[in-house]
């Protein structure tokens, strides 16, 4: 009989700055207690950066815009997908040393074992990042 995988955790949050803290807390609190010391800080940072980017660059400011988060373990990683209704393709930037922003995906690139950007089947964009727990 095949091993049945865990059901991914799934949240919808308003595309509003207050959702960044809620998302970070929900995701890190969902980790098994034994993994929180190793993954909690990095997963919290990934969540904050990806949700912030989704709100700033992927939502169009309508009241009904939602950010979707999905968290699941697979292949020795915890995977986080953050999706927004926008059609942009997030890309690494290399801001000047005096720039006040533009470093979010650089942090994601440094922390994550792997990450990618995927278009959604109907509308929007997802950024998927994985952290190794082995």
Automatic annotation (TrEMBL):
Task: Report domain Histidine kinase/HSP90-like ATPase positions.
Answer: 13-126
| Keyword entries, A-Z | ATP-binding, Kinase, Nucleotide-binding, Serine/threonine-protein kinase, Transferase
Instruction: Write down the CDD domains for this protein, in alphabetical order.
Output: HATPase_RsbW-like
MF-aspect GO terms: ATP binding
The keyword Chaperone appears for this protein: no
Query: Pfam families annotated for this entry?
Result: HATPase_c_2 (PF13581)
What this protein is called in its record is ATP-binding protein
Q: To which species is this protein native? A: Streptomyces erythrogriseus
